[in-house]
């Protein structure tokens, strides 16, 4: 395993921010992870785990060791007539796992087609799209405590999944390295076609004939028509989460803004569309130098050129402050900021 010094991370984050890592190592196996974590020279060095870099904003050079996870392997570990347990290594591309499941007609993650990044990062923010979240199919994960080297298994409850959230974004942030994830999928046909964006593409009489492959193709089509490709313009998908507010706050906002886009949640709170809030502030398509908000997606902040991470962060902070002033709502970043 080669340890690189003062290594540029520009090609390793989808914002395309050009920062340097003091040390950088790409690990291809769990043995290499163990070997790296046991090296005396890195014992007290800060460690940042990197998957595909599609949900990360580096605002400065990394003073420490960046561990790029590239371990591979997708295996069926248990199955019966109805369900199957699939175990995948952290370095697998998430979409390769979706493709494997769709090819084998294992139902459950087809709506999560084309989400960039790795399997190991999927539990970090409980990835979700089109009405499905990772926790719907999640069984457990394995990993290593970075400081002690202790191996640990987390079941669903221990992960404390929330909306784009988990224990790995709070208490265990920068403390735990995920090595494997186990999902439980259905072998019986079960599709989730409730999401509003699907409706205009699926005719009522076609629904029964819809296949898992049709869902994957449809999600591909919708995503490719709406989302900016990071290879064209640097971005990390949605920069902010959709805020959750009380019924009272939602009602008073609705009185002022009858077109407010909101969704009632199970916990009696209301999810407000962050994209709508940003658009209503007149910020959609706004550009300052090399940073801007995408003209079609108000939630996506774009690096149009060689913007630095701190320029992107300061642009995002201005968005937060404009939304705060107009709506008295705090937008929380979804992207992991370093
Ligand atoms: P990285 O960006 O490399 O890392 C993200 C965080 O996880 C960092 O804090 C990192 O330290 C940590 N981490 C990564 N791997 C590990 C590991 N093995 N162990 C411990 N910690 C780890 N997200 C959604 O939920 N739904 C979407 O529909 C969606 N669409 C997107 C579309 C675009 C165009 C883009 C650019 C992003 C989108 N995202 C979406 C966000 C992103 O793809 C996901 O959050 C994804 O899971 C990030 O994976 P990654 O490997 O790139 O993580
Ligand atoms: P969209 O379909 O235009 O919807 C806009 C917002 O409304 C989304 O944030 C979505 O919340 C919410 N929404 C729509 N229908 C809903 C319902 N029935 N119940 C509750 N909330 C509902 O969104 P989009 O921007 O094109 O994205 C499509 C899907 O891909 C969304 O699920 C989105 O989360 C996901 N996506 C995520 C990222 C990311 O980086 N995190 C990037 C691109 C797309 P949810 O976000 O909770 O679904």
Walkthrough of the structure:
There is one protein chain. This protein is an alpha+beta fold. 23% of the residues lie in helices and 26% in strands. A five-stranded antiparallel sheet has the order 6-7-12-10-11. A four-stranded mixed sheet has the order 1-2-5-3. It has a three-stranded antiparallel sheet with strand order 13-15-14. The radius of gyration is 21 Å and the shape is globular. It starts with a strand and ends with a strand. The relative contact order is 0.13. The site of flavin-adenine dinucleotide has 33 residues, from strand 3, strand 8 and strand 12.
Characterize this entry briefly:
The protein is 23% helix and 26% strand. It has helices spanning 30-38, 94-103, 156-159, 196-199, 212-226, 247-256, 274-280, 309-327, and strands at residues 3-8, 20-27, 47-50, 56-57, 62-69, 74-79, 83-89, 128-129, 132-133, 138-145, 151-155, 176-186, 244-245, 262-264, 270-272, 287-288, 291-293, 301-303, 336-337. The site of NADP nicotinamide-adenine-dinucleotide phosphate has 16 residues, from strand 8 and helix 4.
């Amino acid at each position: 395993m080669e340890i690189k010094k003062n290594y540029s991370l520009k090609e390793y984050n989808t914002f395309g921010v050009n920062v340097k890592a003091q040390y950088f190592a790409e690990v291809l196996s769990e043995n290499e992870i163990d070997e790296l974590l046991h090296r005396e020279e890195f014992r007290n060095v800060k460690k940042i785990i990197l998957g595909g870099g599609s949900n990360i904003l580096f605002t400065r050079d990394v003073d420490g060791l960046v561990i790029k996870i590239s371990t591979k392997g997708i295996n069926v570990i248990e199955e019966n007539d109805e369900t199957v347990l699939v175990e995948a290594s952290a370095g697998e591309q998430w979409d390769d796992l979706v493709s494997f499941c769709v090819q084998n007609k294992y139902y459950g993650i087809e709506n999560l087609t084309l989400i960039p990044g790795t399997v190991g990062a999927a539990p970090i923010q409980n990835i979700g799209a089109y009405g499905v979240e990772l926790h719907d199919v999640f069984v457990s994960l394995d990993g290593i405590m970075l400081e002690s080297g202790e191996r640990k298994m987390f079941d669903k409850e221990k992960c404390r999944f929330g909306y784009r959230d988990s224990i790995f974004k709070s208490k265990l942030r920068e403390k735990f390295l995920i090595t494997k994830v186990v999902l439980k999928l259905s072998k019986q046909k079960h599709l989730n076609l409730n999401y509003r964006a699907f409706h205009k593409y699926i005719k009522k009489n076609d629904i029964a004939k819809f296949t898992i492959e049709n869902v994957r193709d449809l999600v591909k089509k919708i995503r490719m028509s709406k989302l900016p490709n990071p290879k064209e313009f640097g971005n990390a998908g949605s920069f902010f989460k959709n805020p959750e507010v009380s019924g009272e706050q939602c009602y008073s906002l609705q009185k002022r803004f009858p077109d407010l886009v909101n969704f009632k949640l199970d916990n009696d709170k209301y999810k407000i569309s962050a994209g709508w809030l940003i658009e209503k502030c007149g910020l959609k398509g706004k550009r300052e130098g090399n940073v801007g908000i995408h003209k079609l997606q108000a939630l996506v902040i774009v690096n149009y050129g060689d913007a630095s991470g701190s320029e992107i962060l300061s642009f995002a902070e201005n968005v937060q402050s404009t939304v705060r002033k107009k709506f008295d709502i705090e937008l929380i970043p979804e992207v992991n900021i370093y």
